[in-house]
Amino acid sequence: MLSYLFYILGGLTIFTALRMILASNPVHSVLYLIATFFLISGQYLLMNAQFLFIVNLIVYAGAIMVLFLFVLMLLNLNKETEPQKSIKSKFTMVISAGILMITLLAAFIQNQHDPASLPLTDIGLVKNLGRVLFTNYVVPFEISSILFLAAMVGAVLVGKQKNEEMEEINE
């Protein structure tokens, strides 16, 4: 049953990714990309990687896709403003896509495994990630949190200075 669900999600992921590439409307392309991210999240869940599942949903399907949609709406892209590609660049794209397809086909043929036969381990569980993060990697974790805090304070200070400069100019 799990292998059928894996193949269904995989097929739908490939379908939505192709629709994203082939869509003529940029907004439709972003919507297909969102669907692709949701389907990839489902595959993470099947692989017992709950942390990657949640991060993919929150960060990619949530925040980044909303930003993509806002940028597309603000830019107001249409076919008249899009530059035309030359024959040389189209030929290069076709050759690159063919090489990628051959590589993927070779990897698929070489690794003929049933996904249901793969052992489900506890590697992707959030509990194990937290245990390793707060025992073996606690010092790098704390240093990175201090760096993020310093970056946030710096961004607020830079924004505040620019705001004060704008007020001085307006007066």
Give the second-level CATH assignment, the architecture of the largest domain.
Up-down Bundle
CATH superfamily of the largest domain: NADH-ubiquinone/plastoquinone oxidoreductase chain 6, subunit NuoJ
Beta-strand portion reads under 5%
Estimate the helix proportion, in percent.
Answer: over 70%
Instruction: Write down the domain tally.
Output: 2
Sequence-ordered SSE layout with sheet pairings:
Blueprint lengths: L1 H21 L3 H21 L3 H26 L11 H24 L15 H8 L4 H33 L1
Give an overview in words.
The chain is mainly α and 171 residues long. The protein folds into 2 domains: 2-123, NADH-ubiquinone/plastoquinone oxidoreductase chain 6, subunit NuoJ (Four Helix Bundle (Hemerythrin (Met), subunit A)); 137-171. Helix content is 78%, strand content 0%. The chain has helices at 2-22, 26-46, 50-75, 87-110, 126-133, 138-170. The radius of gyration is 22 Å and the shape is flat. The termini are far apart. The relative contact order is 0.08.
List keywords for this structure.
Four Helix Bundle (Hemerythrin (Met), subunit A); 2 domains; mainly alpha; 6 helices
Produce a short descriptive summary.
The chain contains six helices and no strands.
